[in-house]
């Protein structure tokens, strides 16, 4: 990507101390917890500066033309990606609701298939923010419950007051002001308390110790369930599009939202799940999907773009023993 | 009481949603306030657009669990049981493009139309009354689209609404409030654990209140839903009236029973169109001045028939003179016809009668709403746009709206979006607004172009018609557009 970079190397953002190439060398320190000499001082993965930043954004979170419009537009893709993940897994009996309505079957067939295919899926949404994903997950007919957590009290207040506007949500959706670390730990055998889908969308790039964070998250994923993430690759393109263009020039993302140094490349994130024999027994093969924001059109899936910009990564938990 | 409500809820929604309702019921009954009657979709207006939308939602397994209601001022049982003998046709007919017919077939409604009363047509003859420049829309060998040579289907509006109601009855699950007037639309209330302050509440006659996640205005050109949403509609009146009538012809047309032809002649007062119905019948749509329209309505059947025959044959000057006569147009027509030369095969066969009580008129307008959506509101059909009838596109635009809105709702449901939020409805506007706007504009300009009797536009427009007729590929492109089967231009 460097050859095509729009910013000359000398004009690099000053805060950028990361390597200029997409080589794993300097980042592995921060990234791979088991090689990290010093463990983090706090028990939380979340940076306090990040919390105050998102508190300040709370007011416009649900404005369709406000600061979070790009997130609103991305949300349907999150469901598409989860659908793709779940329908790919051999252990899942989940039936995909088809969007293709060319020839709707008879109403009787429709009703029976609808009720028969309902699977009571439990979701855990980590870093739920104003609840864009959490609300939508709770509305799906296949969902039984959504536990949505976020450490920023300001955004959580917004999430709670917005959820009051839709009476269908309250039976399924619970918000909790919490980090993943402060949730009660689950014993391996407590399968029924675990989740079919654990999501952390646009979260990992805001976390100080991603590997420790993921180590902790693992226990909440039900065997056969999926851990689904989305984040941004650390490349010149992503610096140009998400930091420079999106925040500074176009203003479609609030200024100060992203710290490019915290971005994680797809092979780094994938590497976490594949680095040891133990991890490979625990997790299935990660699936990735790269997406690109096209102004005026919204988010589009672009195969291969996971290497350069925004991407999803989903990984299924295989084993029943804990990590 | 709760058990009754639970049973009621179960009739509308799937089992998992019923469980949700039950949980809500229990919670809400502990409060003193009455439980709001919440629907996912409340559709105001049971015309072709509203009924098609509800049918589309009910017929699709993805959206069939939605709780839907219809509010209609008319008594729908009369519409559903509508029946006319084979020698009588309603005067309110519309042209359905193959695209609209395909959509109606997809949602299972087409087969419920009385097919003996649906008339496909395969050719169009359009000419300029001032210059006689002509365009013949017939299919050159090899130019016919694979979908077939049908340009459109002529159909009585009541045959469509009646068929849609039969299909809806078969599907079930719609709470129908018929003979119900919308008395007011307000917003819901905010309580400690529920904020419905942005949810429309439809108050209908009899005191019933329906709370809507999505309120659909399919309630016509003077849409109360549009007024509630504060959406303005801009446009103008044409100072023209559309005169309609059911006509009896001397035969079943020059092409016989299997090749029916639609005719349209542009007169300085507006276009006059004759569209084929089954057998020896045709339907008339004559756009003309308000004065001419009231004269036509006052004439005896014999004189009315003479005026219609004159409209397709005599010169605009002769015709204008006949509009000044209070009566006896029949004699005047017979005399003037001898002095007019024309190719009888290029114009409709002679009208021999008019069905009693079918001559009627309505004012023509062009209106376009500023947008089709608001928070928890969507407009479809005439509530969103009113078009000049010269291209026969009004009902088809409404069907296009409905198809797009149903698709938008389906996407929202599969992606957990709130179907009433602006965010989910955006794609409906972006898909339909420009398409409708272009068509409204083109038809408006056509009307204005052909309303001129003299001046620089007249030779130019005949050049246009003749040129189009000579250019085979261009003509076939236009025909495919008319049939909705061509490359999507709009």
Give an overview in words.
The complex is a heterodimer of chains A (323) and B (490). Chain A has helices at 28-31, 48-57, 69-88, 107-117, 132-139, 153-163, 210-217, 236-249, 266-274, 277-282; strands spanning 121-126, 143-150, 173-177, 195-201, 221-232, 287-294, 298-301, 310-316. In chain A, strands 3-2-1-4-5-8-6-7 form an 8-stranded mixed beta sheet, with helices on both faces. Chain A has one domain: Rossmann fold. Chain A is an alpha/beta fold and 323 residues long. Chain A is 31% helix and 18% strand. Chain B is an alpha+beta fold. Chain B folds into 2 domains: 2-81 and 167-235 and 368-443, FAD/NAD(P)-binding domain (3-Layer(bba) Sandwich); 93-158 and 238-363 and 454-482, D-Amino Acid Oxidase, Chain A, domain 2. In chain B, strands 5, 6, 12, 13, 14, 15, 16, 17 and 20 form a 9-stranded mixed beta sheet that branches. Chain B is elongated. Mean pLDDT of chain B is 86; it is low at 1-32 and 486-490. Chain A binds chain B through residues 64, 72, 75-76, 79-80, 97-99, 101-105, 107, 109-111, 113-115, 118, 135-141, 143, 161, 164-168, 170-172, and chain B through 14-17, 20, 23-24, 27, 38, 58-62, 64-65, 106-108, 170-173, 193-196, 198, 213, 407, 410-411, 414-418, 421-423, 426.
Please describe the topology of this protein:
The complex is a heterodimer of chains A (323) and B (490).
Chain A: H1 28-31, H2 48-57, H3 69-88, H4 107-117, E1 121-126, H5 132-139, E2 143-150, H6 153-163, E3 173-177, E4 195-201, H7 210-217, E5 221-232, H8 236-249, H9 266-274, H10 277-282, E6 287-294, E7 298-301, E8 310-316
Parallel strand pairs in A: 1-2, 1-4, 2-3, 4-5
Antiparallel strand pairs in A: 5-8, 6-7, 6-8
Helix pairs in contact in A: 3-5
Chain B: H1 2-12, H2 15-29, E1 38-44, H3 48-59, E2 68-72, H4 76-80, E3 93-96, H5 98-106, E4 119-121, E5 123-128, E6 134-137, E7 152-156, H6 157-171, E8 174-178, E9 182-187, E10 200-204, E11 209-217, H7 224-229, E12 233-249, E13 261-267, E14 270-276, E15 281-289, H8 290-298, H9 301-313, H10 316-324, H11 329-337, E16 351-354, E17 360-369, E18 373-374, E19 377-379, E20 385-386, H12 394-414, H13 422-450, H14 457-470, H15 472-482
């Amino acid at each position: 990507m460097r050859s095509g970079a729009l910013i000359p190397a000398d004009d690099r953002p000053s805060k950028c101390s990361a390597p200029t190439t997409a080589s794993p060398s300097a980042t592995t320190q921060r990234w791979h917890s088991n090689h990290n000499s010093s463990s983090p001082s706090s028990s939380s993965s979340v940076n306090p500066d990040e919390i105050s930043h998102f508190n300040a954004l709370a007011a416009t979170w649900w404005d369709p033309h406000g600061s979070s419009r790009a997130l609103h537009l991305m949300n349907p893709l999150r469901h598409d990606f989860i659908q793709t993940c779940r329908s790919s897994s051999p252990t899942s009996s989940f039936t995909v609701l088809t969007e293709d309505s060319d020839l709707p079957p008879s109403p009787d067939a429709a009703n029976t298939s609808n009720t028969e295919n309902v699977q009571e899926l439990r979701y855990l949404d980590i870093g739920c923010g104003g609840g864009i994903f959490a609300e939508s997950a709770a509305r799906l007919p296949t969902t039984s419950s959504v536990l949505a957590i976020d450490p920023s009290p300001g955004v959580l207040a917004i999430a709670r007051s917005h959820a009051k506007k839709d009476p269908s949500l309250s039976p399924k959706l619970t918000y909790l002001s919490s980090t993943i670390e402060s949730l009660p730990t689950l014993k391996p055998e407590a399968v029924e308390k675990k989740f079919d889908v654990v999501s952390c969308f646009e979260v990992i790039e805001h976390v100080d110790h991603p590997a420790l964070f993921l180590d902790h998250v693992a226990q909440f994923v039900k065997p056969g369930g999926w851990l689904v993430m989305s984040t941004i690759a650390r490349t010149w393109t992503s610096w140009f599009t998400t930091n420079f263009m999106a925040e500074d020039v176009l203003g479609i993302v609030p200024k100060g939202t992203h710290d490019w140094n915290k971005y994680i490349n797809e092979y780094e994130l994938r590497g976490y799940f594949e680095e040891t024999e133990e991890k490979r027994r625990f997790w299935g093969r990660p699936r990735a999907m790269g997406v690109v924001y096209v102004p005026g059109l919204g988010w589009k899936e672009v195969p291969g773009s996971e290497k350069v910009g925004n991407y999803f990564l989903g990984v299924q938990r295989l084993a029943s023993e804990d990590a | 009481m709760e058990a009754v409500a639970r049973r009621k809820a179960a009739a509308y929604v799937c089992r998992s949603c019923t469980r949700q309702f039950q949980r809500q019921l229990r919670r809400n009954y502990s409060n003193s306030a009455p439980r709001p009657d919440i629907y996912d979709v409340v559709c105001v207006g049971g015309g072709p657009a509203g009924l098609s939308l509800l049918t589309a939602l009910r017929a699709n397994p993805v959206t069939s669990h939605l709780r839907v209601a219809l509010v209609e001022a008319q008594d729908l049982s009369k519409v559903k049981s509508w029946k006319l003998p084979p020698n009588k046709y309603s005067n309110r007919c519309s042209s359905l493009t193959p695209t609209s017919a395909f959509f109606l077939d997809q949602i299972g409604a087409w087969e419920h139309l009385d097919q003996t009363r649906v008339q496909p047509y395969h050719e169009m003859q359009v000419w300029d009354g001032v210059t006689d420049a002509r365009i013949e829309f017939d299919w050159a060998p090899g130019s016919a689209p694979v979908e077939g040579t049908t340009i459109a289907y002529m159909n009585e509006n009541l045959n469509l609404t009646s068929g849609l109601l039969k299909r809806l009855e078969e599907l079930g699950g719609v709470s129908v409030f018929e003979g119900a007037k919308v008395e007011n639309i307000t917003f819901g209330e905010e309580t400690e654990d529920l904020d419905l302050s942005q949810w429309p509440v439809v108050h209908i006659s009899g005191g019933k209140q329906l709370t809507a996640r999505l309120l659909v205005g399919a309630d016509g050109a003077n849409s109360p839903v549009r007024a509630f949403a504060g959406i303005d509609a801009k446009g103008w009146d044409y100072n023209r009236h559309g005169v309609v009538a059911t006509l009896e012809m001397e035969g079943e047309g020059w092409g016989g029973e299997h090749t029916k032809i639609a005719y349209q002649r542009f007169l300085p007062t507006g276009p006059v169109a004759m569209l084929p119905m089954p057998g020896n019948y045709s339907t008339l749509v004559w756009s003309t001045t308000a004065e001419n329209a009231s004269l036509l309505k006052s004439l005896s059947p014999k004189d009315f028939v003479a005026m219609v025959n004159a409209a397709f044959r005599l010169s605009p000057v002769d015709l204008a003179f006949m509009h000044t006569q209070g009566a006896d147009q029949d004699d005047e027509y017979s005399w003037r016809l001898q002095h007019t030369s024309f190719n009888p095969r290029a114009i409709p066969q002679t009208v021999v009668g008019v069905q009693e009580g079918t001559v009627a008129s309505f004012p023509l307008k062009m209106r376009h709403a500023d947008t089709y959506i608001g928070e928890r509101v969507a407009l479809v059909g005439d509530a969103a746009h009113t078009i000049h009838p010269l291209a026969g596109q009004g009902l088809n635009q409404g069907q296009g709206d409905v198809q797009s809105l149903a698709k938008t709702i389906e996407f929202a449901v599969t992606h957990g979006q709130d179907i009433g939020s602006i965010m989910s409805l955006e794609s409906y506007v972006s898909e339909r607004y420009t398409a409708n706007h272009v068509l409204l504009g083109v038809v408006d300009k056509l009307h204005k172009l052909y309303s001129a009797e003299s001046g620089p536009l007249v030779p130019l427009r005949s050049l246009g018609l003749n040129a189009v007729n000579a250019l085979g590929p261009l003509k076939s492109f236009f025909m495919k557009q008319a049939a909705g089967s061509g490359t999507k231009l709009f």
